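This part of the workshop introduces the protein records we will be handling. A learned vocabulary of local backbone shapes supplies the integers on the structure line. Getting from the letters to the tokens is the skill we practise here. As an example, a complete record with its sequence and its structure tokens follows.
=====
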Amino acid sequence: MCRYKIVICAFCLLGLTIFSFPEKSNAQIGIGGGLDIRSEEPTHGYGIRLEYRIINLPPFADLKVRAHGSYFSDTQKKSYSVNGLVTEFFEEQSAFDIGAAILAGVKLGPVDPFTGVGVGIDSSEFETSRTGLNTNRGMGLKEENLYWNLFFGGEFSLIPYVKPFFEYRFVQLINPGNIDLEDSERFSVGIIFRF
């Protein structure tokens, strides 16, 4: 809970800093983040993004490049019983990815739709550990893969500098191995600060 408070305070401080600058007609840089929900375990996480406009086609289109990253984590306590003896263990799953993308957008009033394509690296890890005095590590599995993705979404341009966004992303791993995951879907919502 403390981590979320720190993230919220950091975004508020960044927002106040951006509002103190004079307004520019063409924002070149975007920094933001938000919540990510994906179709495989762990399902909930958060992401960050940094965008830079490389081409502005007045009055209504632009082309941007993006660096982005996401982190997902989940821990579950499970137990099983054999001959009346109960054994408890924790399952820890975590995943993170980093990538780069190119995206094109148009300005259509209060919602600015965009679409893009990108590549990146995905790292997934699965570990189990027993509870009690002897916390031995059980099974562990870690895998890194390259991926490509397609995405589309929109930004709400009602407030200067602060742009809430939503995004749908389709991700496909290029060469999956031990982890049974080839492609996934992801939905992201958050705020991006443009200056």
